[in-house]
Design brief:
Number of domains: 1
Largest sheet: none
Number of strands: 0
Length: 267
């Protein structure tokens, strides 16, 4: 039987391709033409001599391939984190519902677990894969098999810990992007400095426009990469906070809505 690619993988590939197309189109239609026009005016002004001040422009700052690559990675990372954040919010919305309805003063016996499992099994298949239904199912099944409340608490904790590890591991791609962006900026820095050193003889002759342009490539790529990296790290930590709160809230939900009502009759 042929296995289908998971939806999340297809989404990530589509997000990367879309980011590449959109960012590249913006660069070739807006940023680079304006940057080239500004540089040409600066070269002409420098050639005329006299007092000359090189004005900075956002188009010149963003025109190089390193900055374009950083923006592609930034939008890709935002798309990945947006997808995971949306899933976390959807799972968190389940906490507003009484999936397992237990009134105050009621007790759940091991013989009652099948009755309380039915509402969970009636949920949509995609919803059953969320953390809350899985934690509730694990608690009820463990209570039915062991008749021990302590084992039930350990089962819920194991499910929540496993989910926390899974969520943390799935952020590895975002962490790689957050590391790669400054590295790309450093590549631009090395390229710009190398080009500036190659044009040092022109500066000796009095023409410094080539050297300043190359040094601009070096510093602009580093500046843009560091700013984007700060944004990505901030968003990633916000996503981690949402996910950690979700796992903690679900653990608390299971304790307060289910486990504390479980009792075993004495023989």
């Amino acid at each position: 039987m042929k296995r289908q690619l998971p939806f999340e993988f297809i989404y990530q590939v589509a997000a990367l391709v879309s980011a590449m197309i959109i960012v590249h189109l913006v660069h070739i239609t807006l940023i680079r033409p304006n940057a080239e026009a500004i540089i040409e005016r600066q070269v002409a002004a420098a050639a005329e001599g006299g007092d000359y001040i090189q004005d900075s422009s956002i188009y010149v700052v963003l025109k190089d391939i390193e900055q374009e690559s950083c923006f592609i990675l930034m939008f890709w990372a935002i798309a990945i984190m947006g997808y995971k954040g949306r899933n976390a919010l959807r799972e968190g919305a389940l906490l507003q519902y009484e999936i397992v309805s237990v009134n105050d003063g009621m007790s759940i016996l091991p013989e009652d677990t099948r009755e309380y499992t039915r509402p969970i099994q009636a949920l949509d298949k995609s919803v059953q894969n969320f953390l809350l239904p899985r934690a509730l199912t694990a608690a009820l099944q463990r209570f039915a098999s062991t008749r021990n409340v302590q084992n039930v608490s350990e089962a819920v904790k194991a499910v929540c810990d496993s989910e926390q590890d899974r969520l943390d591991s799935e952020l590895s791609m975002v962490r790689y992007i957050a590391w790669a962006i400054p590295s790309i900026g450093f590549i631009g820095t090395v390229r710009g400095i190398s080009a500036a050193l190659g044009q040092a003889y022109q500066a000796v002759e009095g023409n410094i426009i080539g050297v300043t342009t190359s040094l601009g490539v070096a510093f602009n790529s580093t500046f843009v990469a560091l700013v984007i990296s700060i944004v990505i790290m901030f968003l990633m930590h916000q996503l981690q906070l949402i996910q950690e709160r979700l796992v903690l809230d679900i653990h608390t939900y299971c304790d307060e809505r289910l486990i504390r009502h479980m009792q075993v009759r004495g023989r």
